[in-house]
Amino acid sequence: MSGIIPDNPISQGVFMKKSHVMLIAAVVVLLGSTAALNVTVANESGKEDAKSVAWYVANIQEAKTQNQACHDNPSNQSNENCANALHALEITFKGGN
Fold it and tell me: By Cβ atoms counted within 10 A, which residue in 15, 32, 36, 40 is the most buried?
């Protein structure tokens, strides 16, 4: 035998088949990861964009509504809109400093 590829023609056929299997496996993995990425992007596109603290300061009624929704549903409290609405309310009621 010389090098990686065997000298026997029958063994070379087996080696080629293994390389085809590896190529097919790589394509399947690539397609699977592409599909998972598409699902992730689709899920994130359904999310509402977070409004800034400045927006909530300018729209204080929306800040109050968002804050109430966050208070009613504790699982949403880690949401960026909850944090921004609360911060806007704090600024409004305590002053800018």
Answer: 15
- Among 86, 79, 80, which Cα is nearest to 57's? 86
Three-state SS sequence of 36-83: HHHHHHHHHHCCCCCCCHHHHHHCHHHHHHHHHHHHHCHHHCCCHHHH
92, 67 contact by CB (below 8 A)? no
pLDDT more than 70, % of the chain = 58
- Give the DSSP per-residue string, 9-20: HHHHHHHHHHHH
Give the whole-angstrom CA distance, residue 19 versus residue 74: 53
pTM score > 0.85 for this model?
Answer: no
**Number of residues in the chain:** 97
